[in-house]
Write a structure and sequence with these properties.
The chain is an all-alpha fold and 232 residues long. 77% of the residues lie in helices and 0% in strands. It has one domain. The chain contains eight helices and no strands.
Length: 232
Amino acid sequence: MLSLWKVTEMLNVILKSLKDIFSPSVIGFILKIALSSMLIMVAVLWIFWDSFSSLVSHLVSMIPYIGHFDFVQSAASFMGALVVGYGLIIALISILTSLYSPKLLVKLAKKSYPNIEPNDYSKISKSIYYNIKATLIFIVLLILFLPLIFVPVLGQIIMLLLWAILIKEPTFYDVSSLFIKDEKEYKGYKSIWIVAIIASLFNFIPILNLFAPIFAQIMFMHWLLPRIDKRA
């Protein structure tokens, strides 16, 4: 059970993150990332739509009781394609955010934590590794659980957990590698999952869903840096 201190800490992290997320620099950053992601994914889906749609139709046919009705399969296949396509756009936003956010995070950190000096943020190869790993896990699990995503409530819970999986490891690495030498030092904290899940809730809100990856990074920053500050 969460202690009062942990609840207060998390509320403080959320409030600080919300203050940063709507700053002009963050809004400008996410608009560039979101537009680039959507253009890339629309182009990819346009080229591979037939194969993509066939795969989704096959997965929808596996839904118990209703998957074999043609009219249901046709409508569900279209909706399933939109769900998967949307998931891929979010995944691409996460990857691009991870690659291009370090300078923005350092700028925000200096404003709130002037005593903490950032590291050299040139570890792009490891960041790419974590992003590819998380994206592949996300895609595989999304395909496996696609039939269940159409089940009310359960489907939303599954998507929330999948989004949390997508952003947790790469986002924590991107933030921690900027400020500490070994990210494994804080990696075992269970509250990291709470941060990832809270940030993933943005994906259920139109427009704000574009902010989910950078919001997760800012939340991890406000979760991590006070701990480092106390130890300094």
